[in-house]
Fold this protein.
Amino acid sequence: MRYLILGNGVAGTTAALTLRAADLEAEITMVSAESDYFFSRTALMYAFMDRMSLRDLEPYERRVFAKQKIRLVRDTVVDLDATRRALSLASGQTLAYDRLLLAVGSLGARPDWPGLESVREGVSHFVTLADLDRCEHLARATREAVVVGGGLIGVELVECLVFHRKKVTFLVRSPWYWPGALAREESEIVSSHIRRHGVDLHGSEEVAGVQSDPGGRIRVVRTKSGAEFPCQMLGIAIGVVPAVAWLQQVKTPPRMGRGILVSPAFETSLENVWAAGDCAEFQHDGRPTVEQLWYSAKRQGELAARAMLGNPIHYAPPIFFNSAKFFEIEYTSAGAVGEPPAGARTFFFPFPGREASARIVEQAGAVVGLNMLGSRWDHALFERWIAERRGLSYVVEHLAEAQFDVEFGRVDLAPLRSYYREWSGRG
Ligand SMILES: Cc1cc2nc3c(=O)[nH]c(=O)nc-3n(C[C@H](O)[C@H](O)[C@H](O)COP(=O)(O)OP(=O)(O)OC[C@H]3O[C@@H](n4cnc5c(N)ncnc54)[C@H](O)[C@@H]3O)c2cc1C
């Protein structure tokens, strides 16, 4: 059996190792245009801040792939012919397969701001290794940078540029930073923390256009409010899109929506072709869903491999979880808290004198989501409480069990508990 995996990210690599564990004889090949070896995309910022070398971003020893007899090919795939079961590479080579996994990931979304098309230098996303290279190169000749986009990648890029002592303007289209994940109260804590790092953070600012200097380098970003922000570097972090545009040009394109359409067993519309990770789109709760999360991509890669091995698979997204840092503020989120379901009630507590808060959402007597700022929490326990449909009182009472050790700045839970008693007494 010849397994071919396009993409050596977490979905592709997990799939390759899962296939090998189950089939010691199969031929397994992974192709990637980006890197020779699997690396942790989520840790890109630590490379930009010189805290880790590129090699440190690799979760596995390089010898693992040789030991597991997984062949690595560094090339760009330019064509897919599912009738001949072959991929064509930019080098002119062809790779044949019996079963193919498309795990092509995402790319930074490109806006159509007026003037952007004529900028030749100074603009970057922060998604790929090439973006990291570009950002490092641009930062050297930058005094003032503008970063656009109010999500996680945006704030990570901002932090990197602050670390390199750039004057950073951070433009967010929504009224407050990251409304998809943070309610206004949490966002205010995070925003003032970001500002304390010297960042000029603006909400409700939408880009109207950009201008370059005579040499083609970015010079200014204009917003719809009429403001102008001079810069020598522009970071675009307005989201990511499945890296599937090239698949529209191939001999046998799979059916696509925003991503590659897959069944709950990760099958695409093409025979012997599966897709997983950031590029896969499936139906969940009657809605088209593309998960662009590390742990989801890992799980999808494993399950897609099992499906390719012939096992019955029915994927449903796990309880949502994310953890991150906004400069020094820890953030842990689990369940449905970004968009609380209808009829939910929310308990919110800002810890006095700390850049920390707890938000717990309950619906029909069961906690459905938690958003915690300023301390490190065990998301696995949060997920268990959600799965076990524990009530708000239970969760408040047991919260201490989910707090990690003092190294990550434990919060004192006594004031939260006493506020909860008062709050719940109010009905
Ligand atoms: C800066 C940053 C921070 C993040 N932080 C978090 C976080 O805190 N938590 C979280 O859950 N998620 C986070 N994510 C998202 C997470 O990294 C992704 O969900 C995950 O890496 C997706 O893995 P994947 O295997 O699906 O795709 P990818 O890692 O994107 O791998 C796909 C690979 O396929 C290659 N490829 C694509 N097309 C071709 C082609 N035609 N030919 C050859 N090769 C091709 C690409 O070059 C790429 O190497 C972050 C992402 C970024 C960029």
Summary: The radius of gyration is 23 Å. The longest strand covers residues 366-373. The longest helix spans residues 294-308.
